[in-house]
Amino acid sequence: PETITIQELANRMAERAVDVIRLLMKQGEMKKINDVIDADTAQLIAEEMGHTVRRVAESDVEEGLFDAADEEGAAVPRPPVVTIMGHVDHGKTSLLDAIRQTNVVSGEAGGITQHIGAYQVKTPAGSLVTFIDTPGHEAFTAMRQRGAKATDIVVLVVAADDGVMPQTAEAINHAKAAGVPIIVAINKIDKQGAKPERVRTELLQHELQVESLGGEILEVEVSATKKLNLDKLLELIALQAELLDLKANPDRPAEGIVIEAKLDKGRGPVATVLVQRGTLKGGDIVVAGSEWGRVRALIDDQGKAVSEAGPSLPVEILGFQGAPEAGDRLAVVENEARAREVTEYRQRQRRDLAAARSGRGGGGSIEQMM
Ligand code: GDP
Ligand code: MG
């Protein structure tokens, strides 16, 4: 049932909470400032204080923000989005760095690649692949908790000298639960104690049957430090992507997902966003979680300003009023008023939720909870 705290009700009416409490007291209800009352009581109080009440359902505010699917026919192929997962020290960062150094799109000689949480590379055959470059498990879980799907393919890194470990199993479970196909990269193949065969049989215990053992899971032996078979890995990703037949419509307002966000001293709130459908443009008004902004600049993984970003492209957005959170879904809205309506509604929802969680007479102010 819908509820609201006394404080929040007072805020929304621009009345004093103490007057709300007094009115409730007259009706025989003893309440404190952080107590919650139901929506019907709140409406009675508000009307008694001379306010007009408009009750807004979530479906009204959130309506039409995200389109369920791209219209048939309008969708065109888009690059796959890949997350690298695996046990700690098995070489996730090394592999991401090695791929990035060798294949970054349009990387000038010795060019400075900027860390924006994701980057795009070119496969030997010329197709594009987007890698999400954030600590795999947390980002993946955060996004899934918000019901968002950011990844098309998981590359599971398993060190050949260490084998399947707890976080390897965890990654397998995450990917399976999300219905995301896995490509196995057996890493550190250059090492003395490398036992790739053992890795393959251990994976069987987690119901991952690689191709060389008669299964369907794509696999490759790599060395991140010696840069062995990185092209092969990219080819496998392209192959898997082809099987998935990934498409999106670029000719519509953008939708996407926040991969990282921070408050930059010089540039203000900066959000790295993966565009998932549509095309994001300068001047667009965007909402993500309970923040909104007008796109002032879009910056790619090379640190270059770009005028627009289409499906599967990661970009930094400058122009947010505040930093959204990783995993927040991004949508373009018609105008500032709509952006405010959505984000103010979400901020209220968050406050109400926090207040409800803190329980009755919990003491602490609502603001402290945020
Ligand atoms: P992460 O925790 O999965 O991100 O692993 P890192 O990329 O930080 O790598 C952990 C350690 O393994 C580092 O000391 C790397 O230099 C080393 N390492 C990573 N890949 C390879 C590889 O292919 N061969 C060898 N010999 N060492 C590697
Ligand atoms: Mg790492």
Compact overview of the structure:
It contains ten helices and 19 strands. With 370 residues, it is α+β, with helices and mostly antiparallel strands.
How does this model look, in words?
With 370 residues, the chain is an alpha+beta fold. Helix content is 31%, strand content 25%. It has 10 helices and 19 strands. The chain has helices spanning 6-13, 17-26, 39-48, 58-62, 92-103, 136-145, 166-178, 196-204, 230-244, 336-358, and strands at 3-5, 36-38, 76-77, 81-86, 118-122, 128-132, 153-159, 182-187, 219-221, 247-248, 255-264, 268-277, 280-281, 285-288, 291-299, 305-306, 308-309, 314-320, 329-333. The strands form 5 sheets. The chain has a 6-stranded mixed beta sheet, sandwiched between helices. A 6-stranded antiparallel barrel has the order 11-12-18-15-14-19. A hairpin with a 5-residue loop joins strand 5 (118-122) and strand 6. Helix 1 crosses helix 2. The two termini are 22 Å apart. The model is unreliable at 106-111 and 360-370 (pLDDT under 50). Magnesium ion is lined by residues 92-93. Guanosine-5'-diphosphate binds next to helix 5.
Major sheet characteristics: 6 strands, mixed
Strand ordering within the main sheet: 5-6-4-7-8-9
- Count of DSSP-assigned helices: 10
Q: What is the first-to-last residue Cα distance?
A: 22 Å
Low-confidence stretches: 106-111, 360-370
If you average the pLDDT, what whole number results?
A: 87
Family: Belongs to the TRAFAC class translation factor GTPase superfamily. Classic translation factor GTPase family. IF-2 subfamily.
Subcellular location: Cytoplasm
Domain Tr-type G: 77-247
Binding site for GTP: 86-93, 133-137, 187-190
